Amino acid sequence: MIDTEVLDSGLGDADDDDFDGVVEVFDSQLPEHRYTDRELSWLAFNQRVLELAEDASLPVLERANFLAIFASNLDEFFMVRVAGLKRRIVTGLAVPTNVGTAPQDVLADISAAAHALQTRHALAWREQVRPAMAEAGIEVLHWDDLDADDRARMYDYFQAQVFPVLMPLAVDPAHPFPYISGLSLNLAVRIRNAKTGRQEFARLKVPPMLPRFVEVPSERGAARYLPLEDLISQNLGDLFPGMEILEHHSFRLTRNEDVVIEEDETENLIQALEAELLRRRFGPPIRLEVTEKMDEVTLELLISELDITEQEVYRLPGPLDLRGLFDLTRIDRPELHYAPHVPKTAPAFQPAEQNGRADLFAAIRKGDVLVHHPYESFTTSVVAFLEQAARDPHVLAIKQTLYRTSGDSPIVEALIDAAQNGKQVLALVEVKARFDEAANIVWARKLEKAGVHVVYGLVGLKTHCKLLHVIREEDGMLRSYSHIGTGNYNPKTSRLYEDFGLFTCNEQVGRDLTRLFNELSGYAIEKKFKRLLVAPLHLRKGLLRHIDHERRNAQDGKKAHIRIKVNSMVDEQIIDALYRASQAGVKVDVWVRGICSLRTDLPGVSDNITVRSILGRYLEHSRIFAFANDGDPQVYIGSADMMHRNLDRRVEALVRVVEPAQIAELTDLFDVAMADITSSWHLGGEGTWTRHAVGEDGKALVDLQDKTMAQVQRRRRSRAVR
């Protein structure tokens, strides 16, 4: 048995330099082309999302939701990943590519794959989801589908609600081409002056504050909607009186919105970040989406004025910006959604008396508590724990990391209440959390005004770990209560994201968190902890040691098995270590939601590696690392993906789970996910993913998330019976 009190973030006392030498020896024996391109792998992930939208067995409004998720995902991919690649090419920085692949060829491959996916996405809406919604009584119409009465009512709506907020911008010698904001939906309008015969161009922005799909009143009981851009385009005469409307087409621009801050060169991170957020609005164009019927004159004008290349133009059938479908998915038609699931209170946190209030501190003192969201409630565990700590007179201090949280977060309110109740409160707010920067700045300032000690982490590192630490006085002694999670402290996303959280009052975990928080609010990260693996200094090394230990066990004929669940598997050192373990005979199971640069089609290298991906009603978000260790399993959960940024440029933390029942829960979940009877995508040759949703008998395979919901419900009933 390994003594967890003296375990030094790995196995044994192997010297780091010796271990790095092992890596070099084995690397020379691995094939050169052993990684899948990460950007193309990300596009393959979004294709899996699209395949859910194309699945006719799913409720139709859920299919529409997956179409909207696909669109939102792809926007961020261009704003960050493609923009980052272009920036690196322009500035001469190294571009991460497969060996022998030129950076420009990478962009061309991405463009080709993205073009194919966007066209498929548009056709999925036009030919599959839109007709299925119509059959269910929800119609998205074209102007030509309306009768005279409908058009009259729509014109009245246009005059009353739309026309007053429209701002047509002409382009002529007195009016330069207007600034086009990123992700805005626009109409390009070409008109002819009736007096002079001169052709003009105007840009009209579709107001983002208005409903994207305007409801068309109906006496037939059907829910009918008209895209806002259709309504505007059919009434352009009111905007350009006396002009002949020659052409009008929708277009949409995506800009580079990646934020780059040289923290070493700034004296005030918040001010520098606010300035960078202003700059983000004016980032260079990265993608131009247009309708497939746009005329060449209009398109050439846009290409010229926006300084964009032909490769960056996407001609699409159907309406642009299908993120608007998020609005339609809120229609109150329960039968067109997944069956509702109400998260259950974890058995350990259920009150002893009906309608009573659970004492979470007492529950945690009885033993570690592992909570699985959203199957088990975030509100009655994490939020209740923090709220109890905020009002408990015996609690002296609360320390917490905040990466992303919701706008009306009870988490933030509880921290404010704790400070106002005289407790020492430390909040480490990561203001550099991408696309949440502005919101996090607002919350940081609100916390500071309430008396909370707010810090922003370490220079050059994002603080991504999910940590909550409470110090409580009990019988004249101080006791630590800790929570280490895999997901953000965000009550809204906790209902959609699958995550784990561990509550413990273990003294060693408490000491680890005390030191880690002191270092986060100070200047340096301690190199070694006892029950935690912490990046950037030793998480990678700790995982490599565990993987290599499994390799050595397999060579010695001992039990060896590696299970890893992550959102992304990209890091070359980790992948190479898994290849070496596979070569030694270790069974390697990888459960990945998104990017996977690891290949399964390398004879003699990846023969023992299996990779699965599961997507569904919930976003698989937890990270699990389990090592058989010859019958003494070492299992960790935490916030880190296997990416360079997580291992090298972020503060991440994994905690070791030690309770046998909880280890069994995590490994059993893994076994179900990897089983052939479970619906999932299988990674095959050349980085291709194949969906396995139906068995050879024609019956649907097991849905992991449905199965987990049922298991949690049974656990709750079992406790109630006892």
From TrEMBL:
Its cofactor is Mg(2+). ATP binds at residues 73, 497, 593, 621. Keywords: ATP-binding, Kinase, Magnesium, Metal-binding, Nucleotide-binding, Phosphoprotein, Transferase. One of its GO terms (cellular component) is polyphosphate kinase complex. Its EC number is 2.7.4.1. It comes from the Bacteria. SUPFAM superfamilies: Phospholipase D/nuclease, PHP14-like, PPK N-terminal domain-like. An intermediate of this reaction is the autophosphorylated ppk in which a phosphate is covalently linked to a histidine residue through a N-P bond. The active site is at residue 464. PANTHER family: POLYPHOSPHATE KINASE. Belongs to the polyphosphate kinase 1 (PPK1) family. NCBIfam families: poly_P_kin, PRK05443.1-1, PRK05443.1-2, PRK05443.2-2, PRK05443.2-3. This is Polyphosphate kinase. It comes from Microbacterium telephonicum.
